[in-house]
Amino acid sequence: MLTTTDHNRDSAGLTYVYPVLSRRSGGLSIGINLNPNNACNWRCVYCQVPDLRRGSAPATDLARLEAELRGFLEDVLRGDFYQRFEVPPERRAIRDIAISGNGEPTSSAEFDRVVELIGRVAGDDGLLGQIKLVLITNGSLVRRETVQKGLKHWAGLGGEVWFKLDSATAAGMLRVNGVRRAPASLLRDLEAAAGLCPTWLQTCLFAFDGRPPAEDELRAYTDFLRLASRRRIALRGVLLYGLARPSLQAEAPRLAALPPVWMESFAAEIRELGLETRLSL
Q1: Distances in whole angstroms, Cα of residue 93 to Cα of each of 1, 83, 141, 166, 203
Q2: Please, are residues 157 and 197 in contact by the beta-carbon 8 Å criterion?
Q3: Whether 42 contacts 104, CB under 8 Å
Q4: Fewer CB within 10 Å, N or C, the chain?
């Protein structure tokens, strides 16, 4: 049974393709996991990937990915997938194909070819223009040639980028994402991504050791958004969300969901900056 609180990458028994019921998409999201080795160049404390390790995506078997995606779409569109997985009637529609998975997907050396493959297969089933195409990324590899080529093609297919921004301070990124990164570098990567493909910021906020993000963290975040606006970075908006599934990292006992009223209040602050803000609790 698929639920919004369980995004098991192995639920369909495939290597690259997995189904989830997505809170943010409001229905069936078809995930593309280019990191079946559970390797990522970041280590976010809220990550639900088991046995997460540092590293990059392995070589992608494009023939296998295509066969899995075609077979899965056949099962969903013309088979009994919804019945077997007990999907509620109101959610029995494909909302998106999302390149996401168990690590940073743009670390795949075949990323641009994966984009082309998804576009071709989705087009063959008449899905282009009917569903969303989403890339969920930390944005750190956007300067790679294969990534830029892929993003341009993704934009041409009508796709969009969800660019991770959980903190706009160096200390916050080290604490939450496990990376040493300057906010200025993140801003440059965001500018590059948004210049290639329609881009949303996606932000996960939560209580750490029983406390919400500090005021200086929140101010740095809104200041970052103001700076992006002054730089004329064309953001579509902010996807703000809280914890809905348990972390599988060592910090898990220290994390907790923030009260809905707190999340609503911060979402309102972002909206005051003129950015569309979608909140998922």
Answers
A1: 16, 13, 32, 30, 26
A2: no
A3: yes
A4: N
Write down the pTM of the prediction: 0.94
CB atoms within 10 A of CB 247: 18
Structure tokens at 7: 């995004």
List the domains of the chain with CATH numbers: 17-280 (3.20.20.70)
Largest CA distance in the chain: 52
What is the tens place of the pLDDT at every residue in 23-72?
666 789 999 999 999 999 999 999 999 999 999 999 999 999 999 999 99
CA 93 to chain centre: 20
Q: Compute CA distances 92 → 14, 31, 208, 228, whole Å.
A: 21, 16, 36, 38
**DSSP characters over 168-192:** SSHHHHHHHH-----HHHHHHHHHH
Beta pairing, strands 207-208 & 39-40 = unpaired
